[in-house]
Inverse folding.
């Protein structure tokens, strides 16, 4: 499904940018893919997608799941 029709950016592309390229803000998503730079109708959906992805990334990186060499849990 398209997130930004004007720039032909799919939700999959935006999620990949967040997960693999380290995009953490709407500004970065706009700079890298043009999201929200034409008509702006996609901005609320882009913000929501960013919040969802970032919250899932941070929960996946909780201290309980991170381990250092030797099996010692990392503390944030």
């Amino acid at each position: 499904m398209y997130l930004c029709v004007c720039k032909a950016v799919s939700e999959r592309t935006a999620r990949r940018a967040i997960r693999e390229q380290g995009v953490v803000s709407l500004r970065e998503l706009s700079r890298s893919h043009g999201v929200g730079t034409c008509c702006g109708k996609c901005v609320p959906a882009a913000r929501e997608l960013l919040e969802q992805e970032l919250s899932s990334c941070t929960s996946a990186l909780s201290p309980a799941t991170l381990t250092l060499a030797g099996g010692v849990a990392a503390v944030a």
User: Anything to note?
Assistant: Residues 64-76 have pLDDT under 50 and may be disordered. The CA atoms of residues 17 and 37 lie 17 Å apart. The longest strand covers residues 2-4. The chain is about 45% helix and 5% strand.
